[in-house]
Amino acid sequence: MTTTVDTATHNEVPASPSRLPRVLTAAAWPLAILLVLHRTLITAFNGTATDDFTTVYNALSRALAGTPVYDQAYHHVDPLYLYNPGATLLLLPIGAVDSFEAARYTFILVNSLAIIAALAILTRLVGHCLRGPVLPVATALAFSTEAVINTLTFSNINGILLLLLAVFLACFVRSFDSAANNAVAAQGVKSSSPRVSPHALRYIAGLAIGLAIVIKPQFAPLLFIPFMRLDWRTVGTGIAVPALLNIAAWPIIPGAGDYLTKLVPYLGETRDYANSSLAGWQAYFDISNALYFPVWLLTAAAVAIGVIFLLRWRSTDTLLWTLTTSGLLMVGVFTLSSLGQQYYSMWLFPMIFTVLLSRSAFHSWPAWLAAVLFLIPNSWTSSLWPDFGRWMGTYIGTIGWVLLISVTAATAVGWWRLQVKNPA
Questions:
Q1: pLDDT (tens digit, 9 = 90+) per residue, 328-376?
Q2: Into which family does the record put it (predicted)?
Q3: DSSP tally for the chain: helices H, then strands E
Q4: How crowded is the C-beta side of 235, counted as CA atoms within 13 Å?
Q5: Nearest Cα to 232, choosing from 262, 198, 263?
Q6: Cβ count within 10 A of residue 203
Q7: pLDDT tens-digit series, residues 43-59
Q8: DSSP letters for 340-387
Q9: 8-state DSSP, 263
């Protein structure tokens, strides 16, 4: 046991374990603040050759000027504007800012703050106080990852999407907690938690996931989570928001019809650069279907197995089930779809937060190895092994995603077998 020495009496006095969280909090906040400021004001403001914001700003400016938004050259690898008309309508105020630099800097700041807000929501969701060490440690770690660094440096919208994801998950989980508290209160038993309408929480959850879907359709599979709890408010709102936004945008956005005739066919193609999905792996190395499809099917089967076996906890441990299933569905989308970029891994943060629960796939070292692989910001450029360095730069995330899928599926099956053997 750690001890300290009383200099007056020379007696050893046990160090209080309660001091450790305070010390960790005090140490983590300066690191977190400096990393946030550096990544936001220096790295991101400096920018890089990859610039997602300019493409979006120019497209929104074209829309406001009445020029067709999707009038682009689809035969080269320069960044293309990929948002649907509904998302374009939602983002249109950005194009109204006259100063490009002011718009870009503000956009970076908003995304940085959104990431911190999302981490705060997840910290509270897993039962920890914002004054404790969890939030500063999570912030410092997050702003050290490839996902956050590149999201801010490329000036894209993924930070805001992480916040929408956190709101969706938190409101969905809390809606069932709130329903349970209200049921207890109805029986005349006082609850320590305030009574909150679960209906309102579910509509907010649907609004959040609907906004995420209209910007990035990759979030659509997450509607599986409320569907499996028969939460029609969240599901209905999550479907209605992107549908209504696109209906409203169609007569407003110039050349909206080109989205279906020009952009959708392009989105159906698998690009062979900056693509960490299995399809990108096949395209880059020109791998035969005889090898690709068995790997793809095995990975898809692992996702399905994990999702199915996790269903056992959808009612008994809504928090664990929701966070773990959301991560498994999202990593499945990254890996199995036609386009997966490593910085999408930011949307796996909610799943990683389950490490603070009594049960988690992240209670094993293989899951952390997977997280390190897809979150580490290292450059693999090598003068001795240039090809290997180039491959690792793109596909280290793929390895991590596939490993996380395998670990999560195996863990879910292990939990199920243990519970069947020991039902108590």
A1: 999 999 999 999 999 999 999 999 999 999 999 999 999 999 999 999 9
A2: Belongs to the glycosyltransferase 87 family.
A3: 19, 2
A4: 11
A5: 198
A6: 17
A7: 999 999 889 999 999 99
A8: --GGGGGGGHHHHGGGGSSS-GGGSHHHHHHHHHHH-------SSSHH
A9: I
Amino acid at residue number 1: M
Alpha carbon distance 416, 148 (integer Å): 34
CA–CA distance, 411 with 123 (Å, rounded to integer): 23
End-to-end alpha carbon distance in the chain: 35
Which tokens in the block code for residue 176?
């069932």
Report yes or no: 95 and 60 within 8 Å, Cβ to Cβ.
Answer: yes
Give the residue carrying structure tokens 């770690």: 141
Rounded Cα–Cα distance for residues 101 and 45 (Å): 9
Residues paired with residue 3 on neighbouring β-strands, in sequence order: 14
| Predicted confidence (pLDDT) per residue in 103-134, tens digit | 999 999 999 999 999 999 999 999 999 999 99
Q: What's the angle, vertex CA 188, arms to CA 185 and CA 194, rounded to 5?
A: 30
Q: Which two tokens stand for residue 169?
A: 């998950």
d(CA 184, CA 374) in angstroms, rounded, equals 43
